[in-house]
Amino acid sequence: MSTAKLLVATSLLLILVGCATTPEQEAANRSAEANKIQRKYATYTTPQLQLKRQEIAATIPDWYWGTGIAGAIQAGQIEGKKKQVAEIDRELLRRAESGDTAGQQMSHFLAVSTPPGARIEAGGKFLGITPIMVSFTGHPGAQHNLQATPATLDIPVLGYAYGFKETDGNLVPDDASASTIGFVTPNTPAAQMGLVKGDKILAMNGIVLPETTGSKESAQAYKSATREQLTKTGFAAPITLKVLRDGKEIEVKGTTAD
């Protein structure tokens, strides 16, 4: 009897000792798991891996509807996909932290505010006053924090953005679009004047703006002339624009931002 109890106690002790892990062992386990995941996705470029993650995540439902065996199968499939997404996230993080730049790309997005004029900063760096195109280089899907604070406008604005084109949902700077409206911020003078995406601004208050030819120099000349005319117009002042819309020249009237 005593011998049996001793054997059971000894076996239990051995099991408990075998289950115990040290911080070094845990670190080794994590490293082994990371290496396993790295080998698993070694044939994928970073953009391909990001796309694979998106495709898997898109197939994960918020809940499963089966019961019994069917429900258990569905639950297992969902958990398997969540595990795979988590693995890919770990590999993408490892690549980012290791200095992998192969999958980095230039991204652009439009920062707007109502009313316009918010000061936009990122990492302590001043980027501009809304509405403004913001650009950054990094891995798609990475989080970037912007800080927006009320600011005093240095010149009047109308509340539209220009100088970019949209391709498959991505905003891309485009010198040929320097004079063409790409986005109108709601509840701004531009919106109240009836300006719409695609309008080409030809003149302000009778002053013809430089023609844009698609070159960087002509785009810069157009932007400088636009800024000059808005400065001369002043805040909360009447302004008339000559606009090319659907092949026809029209005039729209309104006021600049207060």
Explain how this protein is built:
- This protein is elongated.
- A 4-stranded antiparallel β-sheet has the order 11-10-12-13. It has a 3-stranded antiparallel β-sheet with strand order 3-2-5, with no helix packed on it. The protein has a two-stranded antiparallel ribbon with strand order 1-4.
- With 258 residues, it is α+β, with helices and mostly antiparallel strands.
- Helices cover 40% and strands 26% of the residues.
- It has helices at residues 2-19, 23-40, 46-58, 68-97, 189-193, 216-233; strands at residues 105-111, 118-122, 125-129, 132-138, 147-150, 160-162, 164-167, 170-173, 181-184, 200-204, 207-208, 238-245, 248-255.
- It starts with a helix and ends with a strand.
- It contains 6 helices and 13 strands.
- 18% of the residues are buried.
Brief overview:
The protein has 258 residues and is of the alpha+beta class. It has helices at 2-19, 23-40, 46-58, 68-97, 189-193, 216-233; strands at residues 105-111, 118-122, 125-129, 132-138, 147-150, 160-162, 164-167, 170-173, 181-184, 200-204, 207-208, 238-245, 248-255.
Uncertain runs with pLDDT below 50, 5 residues or more? Answer: 1-18
Radius of gyration: 29 Å
Assembly type of the chains comes to single chain
Order of SSEs: HHHHEEEEEEEEEHEEHEE
Helices, by number, come to 6
- Inertia-based shape: elongated
Q: Helix- and strand-based class?
A: alpha+beta
Overall average pLDDT: 80
How much β-strand is present in the residues?
25-35%
| Main beta-sheet annotation | 4 strands, antiparallel
Helix content: 25-40%
- Cα distance, first to last residue? 94 Å
β-strand number: 13
